Amino acid sequence: MNDFAQMKLERKKPLEITFEKGKELITVYNDTFNLSGIGSTREEALKDLIEFFIHDYLSYKNTPPEKLSREAKSLLQQYENVIETYFVL
Fold this sequence. Notes:
The protein has 89 residues and is of the alpha+beta class. It has 2 helices and 5 strands, in the order E-E-E-E-H-H-E.
């Protein structure tokens, strides 16, 4: 899975996200998995969320388990659940 960012993902089911429009920026988030992104358009905010998810996931996935804190291990498991539940690899 090290090439996760390069893989073509097919959605199994939609991931619930919420958009909030501020004065200048739009925020997109998913409370269940604590994911968020911001941008000047909905598309930019969604792209930011996706990039945040991929960056964090690969960071944790590529770190030896003994070097991850309990919180980081939990977050990695949550991210893997997102992938398993919502996407076909």
